[in-house]
Structure formats: C-alpha cells, structure tokens
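#onboarding

Welcome to the new folks! Below is a worked example of what a typical request in this channel looks like: someone posts a single protein sequence, and someone else replies with the predicted structure as tokens. Don't worry about understanding the tokens yet, we'll cover that in week two.

Example request:
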Amino acid sequence: MTSTSQLFDPYAEALMAIAREQGLEDRFGEDAALFRSTLAASADLRHLLENPTLFSSQKKAVLNQVFGSSVHPLVLNFLNLLVDRNRIAFLDGIADRYQALLRKLRNVVRADVSSAVPLTEAQVQVITEKVKQLTGAAGVEIESQVDADLLGGVIIKVGSQVLDASLRGQLKRISISLAA
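Example response:
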C-alpha cells in the first residue's frame, strides 16, 4: 500500500526544484496557499477535479479559468501535468507538502495555537517569540483556532511538541496530582 507522502512528495519536490531553479520559491508558495484556500472553500471544485468521468481537457479548462490569471505560468503547467498524470485530486496534499518544504528551506516552523478566545496581535507576537526561542527557527507561521473548552490560556503545537498552557490542562494536572 502506498502512503500519501509517497504520492505527494515527488510532485512537491519537483515543484520545489523548478521554483529553486527560477528563484520563485515564495511565489510558488503563495500559489500553493491559493490552491489550498480555494479547494477548502469550494467543495464543487474539489469534486470536479476528483471526478473520473470528466476529460482531462475539461479539468484543464476549469483550472485555467479558476487559476490561470492568478498563478505563475510554470505552476499552471504543473497543474496541467497533474491532470495528465491523474494526480490532480492530490493537489491539496501536494500543495501542503510544498509549503512544508518551503518552511524547511526558510527555517520557519508552523505553530498550531488553540486559545479560549481570539488572540490579540500582541499575544501572537509573544507566542511567536516564544516558539522561536524554543525551536531556534528564523520564523513562525501561526495557525490559530478558538476552542472555548480550554477555559483560558493556550495550547501550542509545533511538530510533535505540545505546550499546554491552558486552564483546562492545568486543572487536569491538578486533578491528577490530587488523585495520586
């Protein structure tokens, strides 16, 4: 059985190689972000691209219409290649993997932050600096979401590391220590 990374990695790495040759790593990263946000926002587009009964020419026409004026021409060629190879359904995963490669190249980490209330800009800055200190990264991409169940504080995930500074986590730790 083939893992998804075995499907995504060669295409993401090929796109990165083209980007590096042309000095367009960040531009292609922006295009990858556009794919991901567009696919997340449009179930119809996802279903259309995944539809095996549509001809490649139809899928290419849709991709050209949706992304043609927004993405770099080399990226549009890449999308057409994915259609030709019947891999366009994996676009989201390939784009995600490309962004991970770009973060690695730029020494940037992604931090998933859950908080009880929306974070202020000042709080985001504090978290960013703390994550930089902990990881030694040059930059941090913060993905935040609100989780009212936390009661207060934050949970920060960077890779496999989790820093639980939430009120819920503190109460759980107190409960465990009292039960012991």
